[in-house]
Design a protein that fits this description.
Its cofactor is Ca(2+). Ca(2+) binds at residues 244, 247. It is an enzyme of class 3 (hydrolase). The active site is at residue 171. The protein is of the alpha+beta class. 31% of the residues lie in helices and 19% in strands. The chain contains 23 helices and 24 strands. It has a nine-stranded mixed β-sheet. Strand 15 and strand 16 form a beta hairpin. The protein is globular. The model has no long low-confidence stretch (mean pLDDT 95).
Length: 695
């Protein structure tokens, strides 16, 4: 059968082929035509070669990618896939062949701007893209932050800063069982919260062949539909489980005439793997990266000579830090789950597919047309000492080894619904820090407000802007007395505010201004002075180590703690509201809370940054950094509603559009809908599409 490529009114690709392999080839080809620049950026990021055309700004990532052995791990995982699951390996190869064909005939204006020529994808490149996309997903650099807090404030202070902090990714998701819907069939809805990128991190796509017919959100550069899909008889979705499955080890290293040795837990110095790689940097001299791997994993910070500003351990030896992560240990990235997901017909099929999942560790929800439902955690979390999850542990001490894998928890529905929003839910035994419960509690409360729900009702939940976490600051304001008249008026206005972070709300803007002023004052207190200058760790890890964002995202805890190292919090709140009362913001929340998508290159013709509703603890999670900026680079990277009664009644939207090519009519055509909370129909009727070509 000839592979056919169709487009709907939104430019979303619909592909029809005679086999799964033919479909994978077409998916790779179409993705390369629609997102050539994005694919090549991701390939270079996975290889650690992005500085070769982006210059010194990309060097920090390239060093990390090289030292963490991302490309080598992808190669190992693909070799393992070929041995264990040759069918999936052939399917991945077919996708890569399509990408290479599409890149050979594709163009993108960014190539001319950077002088980059599209290169060749290898069979393991999709695995490298997946790994590079998710290696920081579990937030292992937070352990570096906890080390700093413990060193300067004591171990008891670590919990004060626990929050859904910078650099993490979350999601909302909810499943409404058939007993709570107007059709008697389940509805699954939600939105993944990630960096809003241009082009987008999710690709709307429809894949059809004799074996399966699936619509869903694909990760560009990876075949199939992993995270969010609907086969007609079963649908699934995921959120970040906030699990801890990566460890950092403080290593003792020494150079010898033969290379580098590391001290192991049995007290023996053993040879570490070592080599040097050259990182090309556009417009600058090449840079060498020393790559060292111990029995724990690749060394990602420091080396035998330590790191400037990082003290030696008590023995006087310099210290380095290694990273242990599951695919490097097992040679498995979980790609064996991808084809079974596409072929799934019932919840049991989805469940078995996710048994093969590796990382990132996710909470999964699924439902089918026979009334089956699923709510479980999927992924690989090592069994090891509790200290491994909390801090950087000493590699030379016994007791920190991995001892197998955790059982992944399961849960059910409560009153016919299940809600996942990165809170302490079924994944609680597997993690350390979770998102505050506000989003999950709000979704549950909204769902409890009506007995029967439809797919068409779901956008009202997606776009809810109530900010429950405002209570901690508002309670502090309510307790103040002796304010100036201007501050007293402002305080009373905020206490009467409806706590909705709507873009057109002047009260929301006032609240955000007071919050930012409080954050800045707390961060500037002498009690936290030692945390203002982070260690001289690689730039990649700095977002986890910056004090102002940490205070901003942990403000609720810091304001409610019984004691805070002598910080006079009433005085800080008083000074903040007096400051804002003297110079209040002139406009509304959307004037400063604007969408700022991440782009590899700034556009030649800059776009307006639209104002946004929402905030980081709202269901409509559009996240700036309190105390630093109201501009939002994180938010819903897609929204979806999967209707099990009739797939054609499902809906979805992405922040920009289906095309990654600037100037395309489908590059930003979904943005107005995304801003308004509207969705576009999921089209599966081939007669309602326009045929583009046969391949």
């Amino acid at each position: 059968m000839t592979t056919e490529i169709y487009r709907d009114a939104w430019g979303i690709p619909h592909l029809r082929a005679g086999s799964a392999a033919g479909l994978a080839h077409a998916q790779g080809l179409v993705t390369a035509r629609d997102r050539a620049w994005q694919l090549e950026v991701e390939r270079h990021r996975a290889q650690g070669t992005s500085a070769s055309f982006l210059g010194g700004s990309a060097l920090a990532w390239d060093r990390f990618a090289r030292r963490a052995r991302l490309d080598d791990t992808a190669r190992r995982c693909f070799a393992d896939l070929e041995r264990r699951d040759p069918e999936t390996a052939r399917w991945v190869r077919a996708y890569v062949d399509g990408v290479n064909e599409g890149l050979a005939g594709g163009t993108a204006p960014e190539f001319a701007r950077t002088g980059l020529t599209p290169g060749r994808w290898e069979p393991w490149t999709p695995l490298g893209v997946w790994l590079a996309t998710h290696i920081l997903f579990a937030g292992f650099p937070a352990k570096l932050w906890r080390e700093q807090v413990a060193a300067h404030l004591g171990a008891d202070a670590i919990g004060l800063f626990a929050a859904d902090g910078p650099g993490t990714s979350g999601s909302n998701g909810w499943l409404v069982g058939g007993e709570r819907t107007v059709t008697g069939q389940a509805v699954i809805a939600g939105d993944p919260h990630r960096w809003i990128e241009d082009p987008g991190v999710y690709q709307q796509i429809h894949l059809s062949c004799p074996e399966f017919d699936v619509v869903g959100l694909a990760v560009p550069g990876v075949p199939g539909i992993a995270h969010f899909g609907h086969t007609g008889t079963v649908a699934w979705a995921i959120t970040n489980a906030m699990s801890d499955y990566q460890d950092l080890y403080r290593e003792r290293l020494r150079r010898t005439g033969a290379g580098v040795e590391a001290l192991d837990p049995d007290g023996v110095w053993r040879r570490a793997a070592r080599h040097t790689e050259t990182v090309e940097v556009a417009g600058e001299d090449p840079v060498e990266a020393e790559v060292i791997e111990t029995g724990r994993g690749p060394v990602i910070i420091g080396g035998p000579e330590g790191l400037d500003g990082d003290p030696a351990d008590p023995s006087g030896l310099p210290v380095a830090i290694s990273l242990r992560y599951p695919p490097r240990v097992t040679g498995d990235l979980g790609f064996a789950a991808l084809l079974p997901l596409l072929r799934a017909r019932r919840v049991a099929d989805v469940d078995r597919a996710f048994d093969r999942w590796a990382e990132p560790v996710n909470v999964v929800q699924a439902a089918d047309t026979e009334g089956g439902v699923l709510h479980r955690v999927a992924g690989r979390v090592p069994l090891r000492a509790e200290a491994n999850s909390l801090r950087v542990v000493p590699a030379w001490e016994p007791g920190h080894e991995w001892r197998g894998w955790q059982e992944t928890p399961r849960a059910g529905l409560t009153d016919g619904v299940a809600v996942m929003a990165n809170q302490r839910g079924p994944a609680a035994p597997l993690g350390v820090e979770f998102a505050p419960p506000h989003r999950a509690d709000r979704i549950a409360a909204l769902l409890a407000g009506k007995e029967r729900w439809s797919a068409a009702d779901m956008p009202a939940i997606h776009t809810d802007t109530h900010l429950a976490s405002a209570s901690s600051l508002l309670d502090r304001l309510a307790a103040l007395d002796g304010l100036t008249p201007e501050a007293s008026v402002l305080r009373d206005r905020l206490l009467g505010w409806d706590r909705r972070m709507d873009s057109g709300s002047a009260d929301a803007a006032l609240y955000a201004a007071v919050r930012a002023a409080v954050v800045r004052r707390l961060a500037a207190h002498p009690a936290f002075a030692a945390l203002t200058t982070p260690p001289v760790y690689p730039e990649v890890f700095q977002p986890w180590l910056a004090l102002v964002p940490r205070v901003g995202f942990a403000l609720e805890h810091l304001l409610r703690a019984g004691e805070l190292f002598g910080v006079d919090r009433p005085a800080a709140v008083r000074a903040a509201i007096e400051e804002v009362a003297l110079r209040p913001p002139a406009g509304v929340w959307g004037d400063t809370h604007r969408l700022a998508p991440w782009r590899v290159l700034e556009p030649e013709q800059p776009y307006d940054e639209p104002g946004l509703s929402g905030d980081h603890d709202c269901v409509l999670c559009t996240s700036g950094v309190p105390g630093l900026t109201d501009r939002a680079a994180r938010g819903p990277a897609a929204r979806y509603v999967w209707d099990l009664a009739r797939r054609e009644d499902s809906r979805w939207v992405v922040p920009l559009g289906a095309s990654g090519v600037p100037g395309s009519p489908h590059h930003r055509d979904q943005l107005p809908l995304w801003l308004a909370g509207d969705l576009v129909p999921v089209v599966t009727d081939w007669t309602k599409m326009k045929k583009e070509r046969d391949v």
